[in-house]
Design a protein that fits this description.
The structure is a homotetramer of 275-residue chains. By secondary structure, the first copy, chain A, is an alpha+beta fold. Chain A is globular, with a radius of gyration of 18 Å. The N and C termini of chain A lie far apart (47 Å). In chain A, 44% of the residues lie in helices and 12% in strands. Chains in contact: A-B, A-D, B-C, C-D. Chains A and D meet through helix 9, helix 10 and helix 11 of A and helix 6 and helix 9 of D.
Chain lengths: 275, 275, 275, 275
């Protein structure tokens, strides 16, 4: 626990350093926080990837009509990109908006916003290493969030689970709520539970999954529910289960991005052909 | 039990009050009950929504060829709208018919009718708060109807289950039958079992699900079977399950409609693109 | 057992009576059994229904590349119609061939035949009440064929299971084989196991399902595996299961065909749109 | 164990005999092993079948973005054909490359290669009877690879399982790794575990499946995971399971190829229609 806190503290130090330039040139944002100034146009390729990430995860059954995907702004770590309030499978480039880390939109143009956008802002604040974030309600994750059985890695592609997948129990932080991450306080509580892990289950709700790139977080979002299904099946078969060894997981994680582009090409082609 | 009866009685009081105007202008209906007079054309948007509700639930695997969806007439609480006897995925606007609460069609034009339309008429009579009704044979619900394990809410989107989902055992009311709701008496028996609940399982048959709008009843019809599947999986994992707390469920229900339009847009686009 | 035998004997009596005319005009068949004379063209609507039955069951996941569907010839109970050796989802009207009850093709035109066509011929001989026959490898049926747990009716649409679904153990009749129904002897052994039942599981192989019409046998072929899945899920939930009462099943069966046309329309539209 | 080693030794003897001609005319390959000379163009029908095998197995859910299929060169047993590094569902004829048995490409043309191509080269060396090889991550196989429950044949089409499906535990051969078959040594270790069997599970990773033709290995790759699912379901039902008898399995295997063409036609039509 101490080492995690230290990790997070050092993380924050890095983040403060990284964001100095951005903070200086965005001083006015602090004054008029509800209407921050845009950092300027983003590489269309990144927007295309963010649209693809949404549609891939909808096509793979990972995102229902309420999930979302964000990516940190490539030129300003104090900003992130996220769609207006829309079902992931319908998102187009024009739906992507820029937010500051307090989850205020740069230029809402009257568009409605995801209620739970604070998930993205608060995790971006707490985790400078994180570039992309997925909030999902993938069905296979729910049984693990509501039971006492921990998710453990049983499959090569879900080796990141070896880092531990905590369960966020919103009751412990906020008592009885409607369970949505509706504000900064709840967003921070979720970020605290996530700590330095690659994902956190949200009891009775879903999960948040983070990663160092859009491709990595999309891969993790596909393989976390798959691992859950496989673990349920292996448990039902009975007898001892051989999980990935922490050393195996570490070696796989070092190369986790390796070859992701091959699957991404197929996932994207299939998902984008739908509309 | 007493409180339920009281609730239903007060419900009926409200309903009598609500339907005074309609009853006055529909007096002739009582005389010629088998051929009631039409209340007049309905907003085409409502018809489109009813068609979409049928096709969405077929596309989502909730309705097979024999399920149906009704909506109460917007200008006359003594009438409801329901398709002629047709598989939900094939229904078009021209298939929608008007029925009185004794489930007589206003203008059958020789079209065949759902045998079990009495489900809709009798629940409309007993539950003035109900605007839309789904009758489903969703497979995931059958195991709960035939076992003694009660459905309980494990997932945010199915918080309405906290109000209790009774099981309708037709044998207790009518002995050995072919299990279809073929007349007013069986329809009333089902409405009695439903009481003030959002849904009732029908043993060995399926369920009836009700709601205050088409969008709400479609959402409930998708998340009731999903909750059933998740609860079965969590039970198989073993150990204690954390269900939604009644207070959490109440807070979620207050806002259940919030954001449903976002999923509805995606569900509808997908379902309507099929034909 | 005695009543079953009596039933089958009386069935055979009926069949002998029914087929007198046909037998008289087909006397030459006995002489040149390997090349029987055609009974003449069949109503194209029946051929279309047989093609649709094949494609529907493929589309519904009931038939893989090796399943088949037959229908008795409408004018000659000593003949049946069956496709040449082809995967069900690819069958067209021109693939349908006429066979005598010894499973000799009327006019093979060099086309290859299903190895297991003897299933159809021998059941047609033994069961004059049967009009249509499906041979399936539906996955959900396999676990019941290889375990000691009997299939029992848990769902309205599978009430026919109440008549009992025997398991055909080919070892008891023929020792160690390649498990295919390759000849008359094996076909007769299967027909014996089926006796007067609506279906028989074939251990480690699949099932044969029969009915009084194509629509009925298609319905039964969809709901037999569905019942198997639901029964497995209910068993996993634990505790006592409420099966259909024999009296309920009898009343449902009296009307089993009722409303099948509604689902057939949707199944057919979906399946035929694929090619 | 002794008989297996003997079998493999005699297998190698056959292979050395078979490949004498090829080895003689390919002597230069030994010198410049990283750039072997092409054996010349291959029958376009074989290339088409290899492309179809990739797409069929992707369409059937057996191959994800990282699986692969190879076939031995028809004129040179020292060569095999395999796609460049690409997701199976996207593979076209131009993606197919020729490799020597050390898994060096004949003419890479700058194309990237599958990291785990050594699976194919080393099994081709060790198993002269093998013509086609599949490497899969089919989800249903993972639970058996990580538990102690052995896969056993429960279904006619998976009779080849009776020959035994060993589990390859990479830790026993190489300690803690990233679990990929990255070189000749690991490829040989996997081939050793496979020995003379038709398939080997790879713990926490997937499986390798081999066969005497592309059609056979595709069939085995579809029915191995299906058998896994059926066995899990039968185990969950409880009680004793009737597996295929070794004699039944032997008789089925003698004819395993029988009728595969019928399913292949349907599988291929469906898979190729996707792009």
């Amino acid at each position: 626990m101490i080492s995690k806190l230290q990790h997070r503290r050092s993380g924050r130090t890095i983040w403060f350093a990284m964001s100095v330039a951005a903070t200086l040139c965005c001083a006015s944002v602090v004054v008029a926080q509800t209407s921050p100034i845009s950092t300027g146009p983003v590489d269309p390729q990144l927007i295309e990837d963010l649209v693809a990430a949404n549609r891939i995860l909808a096509d793979q059954g990972v995102l229902d009509g309420w999930g979302h995907v964000s990516v940190r702004h490539p030129r300003d770590p104090n900003r992130y990109l996220l769609s207006r309030s829309r079902a992931p499978e319908l998102i187009d480039a024009e739906d992507i908006m820029e937010f500051d880390l307090d989850s205020n939109p740069v230029d809402a143009k009257g568009r409605s916003l995801y209620t739970e956008r604070f998930i993205h802002g608060e995790i971006c604040k707490a985790r400078p290493d994180v570039i992309a974030i997925v909030h999902t309600h993938a069905p296979a994750l729910i049984p693990f969030g509501i039971s006492k059985v921990p998710l453990k890695p049983v499959y090569l592609r879900s080796a990141f689970i070896a880092a531990g997948i905590p369960v966020f129990e919103i009751r412990e932080r906020a008592g009885m709520t409607d369970m949505l991450i509706r504000d900064h306080t709840l967003g921070r509580a979720l970020a605290d539970a996530l700590a330095s892990h690659p994902a956190a289950l949200m009891r009775g709700h879903g999960a948040v999954i983070v990663g160092p790139s859009l491709q990595r977080v999309v891969g993790r979002s596909i393989f976390l529910p798959l691992n859950a299904t496989l673990q349920m099946q292996a448990a039902a078969l009975g007898g001892p289960i051989t999980y990935l060894d922490p050393e195996e997981a570490r070696k796989i994680e070092e190369r986790e991005g390796y070859g992701l582009g091959r699957a991404w090409e197929a996932w994207k082609r299939k998902a984008m052909a739908k509309h």
